[in-house]
């Protein structure tokens, strides 16, 4: 049975949604998990004065563990610098949520997503 | 992007829930997808007079395609005999929902689930 932290994020996901991609201060990451074919979109809004993440949104069609991993990640990165957020490892997320080994790829989707959003922001700026 | 039928079932899943397992006229299937680690529970209520499925419920922690596959399956099997329901193939489900090849294993979860529920019912009766 699933850990209560996973169920909490699954039933009550934080920061679900979308931002307009057009704006220069928004970075968009769109990634897929080869293991299961699921996809995830994460967007960050960045304060260019200090490279800090001021807002973050995600959307996924992935499983409960993917929803929980992304929801937890969005709470984690809000207020972080891009450098700090880029250093987050999926293993931290999996540990916090007590994900079983077979669901590690779901937390990988969250790590890949934030990295992809950061690199999209840098590309635009 | 996902087919509108998948989105419809995902946003509005039919027959989500649980029945008491104890009753003799209820068969419970609990199956997992090796490809992604997701799990699914399907329960059927059977009229023993004519071996017909009178009610069905499912629960899954799986992805959007798994939710849609199960939701569609529950609509399909209601009113079927056990024999008819046992002949449903995941390819029918995948075709109806226009699932991409990488998500075929999600529809397999639904086929495995109903078979497992049927065999559980037979075991009890
Ligand atoms: S099984 Fe695909 S993201 Fe979890």
Automatic annotation (TrEMBL), chains A, B:
Give the GO terms filed under biological process for this record. iron-sulfur cluster assembly
Q: Does the keyword Mitochondrion apply?
A: yes
Cite the annotated pathway. Cofactor biosynthesis; iron-sulfur cluster biosynthesis
Molecular function per GO:
2 iron, 2 sulfur cluster binding; iron ion binding
For activity, the cofactor(s) needed are: [2Fe-2S] cluster
Q: Where is the NIF system FeS cluster assembly NifU N-terminal domain?
A: 2-125
The record's subcellular locations are:
Mitochondrion matrix
Query: Keyword set for this entry?
Result: 2Fe-2S, Iron, Iron-sulfur, Metal-binding, Mitochondrion, Transit peptide
| GO cellular component terms, A-Z | mitochondrial matrix
Q: Which family does it belong to?
A: Belongs to the NifU family.
* Functional note: Scaffold protein for the de novo synthesis of iron-sulfur (Fe-S) clusters within mitochondria, which is required for maturation of both mitochondrial and cytoplasmic [2Fe-2S] and [4Fe-4S] proteins.
* Name of the protein this chain belongs to: Iron-sulfur cluster assembly protein
Q: Which organism is it from?
A: Salinomyces thailandicus
